[in-house]
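Tokens help. One example:
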Amino acid sequence: VSKFAIGDHIGVGVFIDSCRDCQPCRDGLEQYCDRGMTGTYNTLERDGVTVAMGGYSNRFVVNENYAVKINKTLALDGVAPLLCAGITLYSPLKHWKVGKGSRVAVMGLGGLGHMGVKFAHALGAHVTVLSHSESKREDALAMGADEFIVVHEPQDLTPLKRSFDLILNTVSAQIDINIYLATLKIDGTLVVIGLPGAPYPVQVGALLNGRKSLAGSMIGGIRQIQEMIDFCAQHSILSDVEVINAEYVDEAYERTVASDVKYRFVIDAKTI
């Protein structure tokens, strides 16, 4: 091991290996490996036989090229979700070159969305949260949102026509994506990050009118994860978490389904 030293804080994300040979892997986009990345959990190692044992453990063995160094100024409980939810939002913001002067909308202020607000704000963007819940307004503004819009009906978005350069859709519920496409500027992009249970019906005219794009994005490569961790240390960014014991997971699941968590649960591995 040459990348790390004894005493370093080390993070492992949602994948622990990839083929290391295809063009995406060579480009630092291991998450899009042509042969499929090896997930940290619920998957098999590259031999196709050995079960990847997941992240709920006190010891972990991984190739050093699939781990990142965590700045010791960052609290580990708040870092843990960065390695999944955090990079899922950081990656599209960087890919679509968000910076000062960008107008970004985040759909949903949940475990994913709240990271998008923090990152977009730190990158200098004007940030708008689109939410169905008025109760999250205060939190969104405290995280750096400039505007908070409650969306119950399609007409709630009418005043926002051609407002945004980039929309990050973190919602997994079935929605009418077309009414959100209408809020994009010319050449704007709506990035799907949440996983709805059924395909979105998309009206082609919603894309043609303004040369708009509908895209998707999934986590990030190792280099970008390290970049994100360093960015978080620079800007004092952590995920908002509630640390729980392992025995609480069933109740935590029910609360997650009910959207009753601010904004990620983190299991204390010592209680496993």
